[in-house]
Amino acid sequence: VGTAPNPFSPSTTITFAFPSGAAGEHRLDVYDPRGRLVRRLGGGTLAAGRHETTWDGRDDAGAAVGAGVYLYRLEHGDRKLTGKMVLVK
Q1: Count of other CB atoms within 10 angstroms of residue 67
Q2: Other CB atoms closer than 10 Å to residue 59's CB: what's the count?
Q3: What does the pLDDT look like over 58-81, one tens digit per residue?
Q4: Distance CA 38, CA 46 (A)
């Protein structure tokens, strides 16, 4: 799992891959540093292979969020992967 560019403005792409035979349910969310959900970027069933999702620096309501550090969390089966990304204005 990774993001590019990072730091970013106005958007970044989160890239991840599921190994062969690992298709299944996933969820990809963005959180603020206090652990509050900012945006749900993805959910549902995905095939094995490489995937990417773009985050445009907006919350679920469509409002632009402020500059700062944000966390993404990818859940796939029993795996949970997290990382940081920095939005600059």
Answers
A1: 13
A2: 15
A3: 999 999 999 999 999 999 888 899
A4: 22
